[in-house]
Amino acid sequence: MDDWLPDAQVLAMLDLEPQGWILARAVHEGRLIVDFELAYINDAGCGLVGRSRAELIGRRYRHLWPETVHDGTLPFYRSVVETGKPALRTVYYERQSITGHFEFRVGPYRDGIMVRCVDLRQVTVSPQSAGAVRLYDMLDTAFDGFTVLRPVRDAGAAIVDFVCEYVNQVGAKMTGRSVEDVIGQRLSDVSAHSWDSGLFDRYRTVAETGEPWRQELTYPEISQVWEIKVGRTSGGHVAVSFREITEQVDKQRQLADSVARAEKAVARARSLESVTVALVAASTTAQVYAAIGSVLRPSAGGQSLALLLRQEQSLRLAYHAGYEPEVIARLHDLPIEHCYPAAAVAHTGQPCYLTSLAQFHAAQPDPETAVPPGSRQAWAFLPLTVAGEVLGALVVGYREPRDFDPDTRSTLTALAGLGAQALQRAMLFETSVSIASELQHALLPATLPQTAGLRHAARYLPWTRGAEVGGDWYDIIPISDGVVAVAIGDVAGHNTAAAATMGQVRDALRAYAITGQRPATVMNNVNHLIRTLRLNTMATCCYLQLDVAEGAVTAVLAGHPAPILRDAHTTGLVRLATHPALGVSDSVLYREDRFDLPPAATLVLYTDGLVEDRSHPLDRGLAELCAAVHSAPRLDPAEILDHILAGGVGPSPRRDDIALLCLTRDPVER
């Protein structure tokens, strides 16, 4: 072996190291160090640089790594030799042969250097930075504690003890002795607890099998965590390193806690998002209750849920899930002054959390009036508050006792707030829908007059935005014996103004028609009235005057789609002249057209919402409607309209109101 290198036992120990070790001689030109020649590298070092020992030993740094000339490496190594002081350097490489973040601990060794290369991606804690010029001092800086043990065998070759052949300063301090007092001594003398802790058995197993061993040991009494590594040298010795990793473990624990908190926050955000989506989609109180039961309750983590709304001086149970009948019976009508915590929450707007059954019973001391707990042992009573108004209380029940930490309380408060907002929106929507529905029905005729020889049926389908009022209408107006006026129209807009205008237009048309005016005169007068009153709107209308006995029809179209006629032979649009909508211009002069309604024929009048919108062309909708009328049952107007509405005619989904009026003339009796 090269005399410049350490003895074989030390090299064997370095060979076992998981970190890279390098010994390099200084190359001089005169008194100046110009390079370093690689004299030793262990297997870990070869793995880091990606080359074999045969390619490395005996070669100079300038040839192996030319970049060391200008990247500061050689001057750094030179300073260690010249000053005799160990030094630390951290570098990052991204090359084909080596990639990573490394820490180089360099110490002077004879007329060269000894380098320990640490892959920072693999270490648990950074080694301490200290050192001196000797090899063993370098080992002191490289480990928190290090020792080399020689097996002691009995007559049967069984390992019964170990003798310490080397220990560094830190390792000796761990035994409470000096280096001189430990080296040469038996393990049983300097560390008898190794037998009780099981370390002796580990050392013996490594010495016998050669399999390395590593473990983290926690010592709660001194609040420390140590990493112990044990390996066997080529000479059969056992090398043991002790490294305190308390700080690293604490950091890892803190990181795990941070990750757990972050994951919890993400889960909370996702939970709130899912609840928000479900509640935003809910329009009615029934839909809100369904969303609360299917989405909010799982997000709150509870097994049961009750929603109590304020009603004068009491609480009304509006929704419940997971509660027993005896609990529901007590909650149905609860006085606002009751001791049940939900009553106080609905009264004050402040949440209440009960973490045990004992707290629940303490809140209701009178068992005669108390709401029973059922199978629950913890409760969250949450106010349903919107803009300072308390609508009631949300009660979430849990089967097991539990604490409500700040994050849980924040989540529950947010969930209750979302539920309260959705509930208030639904209540306002249902109120407006009710008002709109009543107004709409008031503006349409309650019944249509019966006329001998003529059957009729009508349908009105409001748009899905139920809180809005449309301007579609229809009417049948008796004029004289056997003569009726038939009208259908659509005032622009979907609001109360449109509905009010529709009522005015319908009433004006009815008034002019009853006087017996011709259809053209009726339409001209209605147009003049709209312009005179400055209603600032327009209305389409199809107005017909029908002599039932003769089947003669006089018609005027004002911007409205033509009716569809089905007789014994054909089905199609009635060819009528189209005039501008009512209210568009003072100069419009409406004129009449005539056509016949034969016996057993069908006439269908409709508004444009049935056949067109921006995504459904009018021609397509009219073709669909004609096909549906043609295939519909004969004579019964109600069945004909039901067939049309079930036949997939027009846009889907619909975006406008629809009015339909169907007339059938009785067949001639033979």
Automatic annotation (TrEMBL):
Top-level taxon in the UniProt lineage: Bacteria
Record keywords, A-Z: Hydrolase
The GAF domain, residue ranges: 254-433
PPM-type phosphatase domain sequence ranges: 454-665
Gene Ontology molecular function: any one: phosphatase activity
UniProt-listed Gene3D superfamilies: 3.30.450.40, PAS domain, PPM-type phosphatase domain
InterPro entries: Bact_Sigma-Reg, GAF, GAF-like_dom_sf, PAS-like_dom_sf, PAS_4, PPM-type-like_dom_sf, PPM-type_phosphatase-like_dom
Keyword Hydrolase: yes
Pfam families: GAF_2 (PF13185), PAS_4 (PF08448), SpoIIE (PF07228)
Protein name, as recorded: SpoIIE family protein phosphatase
Organism of this sequence: Verrucosispora sioxanthis
Source species taxonomy: Bacteria, Bacillati, Actinomycetota, Actinomycetes, Micromonosporales
